[in-house]
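User: Can you predict the 3D structure of DNA polymerase IV? Sequence below.
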Amino acid sequence: MNDGGLPGVPSEERIVLHVDMDCFYASCERRRDPSLRHEPVVVGMGYEAGEAHGAVATASYEAREHGVESAQAISQALNHLPRAVDADDPDGAVGHYRPVDMAYYESVSEEVKTVLHEVADTVREVSIDEAYVDVSDRLGWDGAPVFARNLKARIHEEVGVPASIGVAPNMSTAKIASDHDKPDGLVVVTPDEIRPFLAPLDVKRLHGVGPVTARELRSMGIETAGALAQTDRHRLVDRFGARGGDIHDYARGHDDREVEPVGEPKSLSNESAFTEPTENPDRIRDRLLTLIKQVTTRTTQHNVLYKTIGIKVVTPPFDVHTRSHSLSGPVDDPALVERIVLDLIEEFEERPVRKLGVRVSNLSFVDADQASLDDWEQSPTESNDTDGTPVQPDGGTATENERSRQTSVFKFV
Ligand code: DCP
Ligand code: MG
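Assistant: Sure. Here are the predicted structure tokens for DNA polymerase IV:
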């Protein structure tokens, strides 16, 4: 990248969201055990009976106030926390430990990502609790704060875990913004605000500046992003090579990396939650018909065929059930989706339902070029389909509905 204008879309015209879940594993534990809310919670490994060594994966913000940090030794971390027996004060906090349960956190992560894919077409998932979303095609800066606020609320209501969101004209600033007011943060940095927003920040907050680079920059007398932005670019390139130019750009609020979605979606789905759990068959049916309409409108728009049709039913508190049915060949047939979905839901008659989802998977992309279609058909990920649905290797008719209690359904490659 040169010092002057930027290639491609000027970054000032883009609106990028960075979504990062708050104390993610601990929030997942709270979702399934609400008694942990507002309590210091440490999630880690290696504290099970007989084990003395282990590390903290994450801690709730209440636990962080006691000095607990990620990657700390578990025994040290738990020593920071008040124990039930130590708590003289009946209102005093008591520390809680939960062992890491990756399968569960991945299933929650999939639910969050499903919401993201519903609100935007350009989503890049970067880790279990983090994604970039480019909404430049659908919003102006006027609408960005409301969009981000609604997205946060939706994740909270539909998935039951808190997120922080940063909005900025590029990826690196959006990431800093999501971290700026955690937890439950929402920070919007408009193109006009980008330089003043970055200027006072410690250089270590910038993308591409790790602890070693930060130390070197400090030794050069450069402590803040503002100081870095004003440093002669050649000095940085001499010292750090091409990366010196990149961090100079980031410090000046320039970053023209595109939010590139990773791979084709493995499934298309829509979900919807009820305000209160309901057993009313008409409400459940109506909601399913709406979801079917949404999903099949998307498949038709994008020329997508599917072989597997499924539902997701969440019963209180957050028990996730998935059911699916596979066809002998790919179709795009809304009437058939309706018949299968209404058949699958019968099993849940008279049970309270908190949330519903409709999904089609085993997709083929009619318009996709041959290369990506080949990739798709050879994809070994089909056998990992996380609802446990066996893929029909010979394309033969599945005569039974596959049943599974696993929770993670919406996978993207
Ligand atoms: N994680 C881990 N070990 C680490 C860091 C993180 O196992 N050293 C896991 C646990 C976290 C999850 O990854 O919950 C996401 O990492 P984040 O860095 O986003 O941390 P949190 O989401 O826990 O906290 P924050 O609110 O700061 O984002
Ligand atoms: Mg996080």
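DSSP finds 14 helices and 14 strands in the chain. Residues 20-21, 24, 129 surround magnesium ion (ligand 2) (CB under 6 Å).
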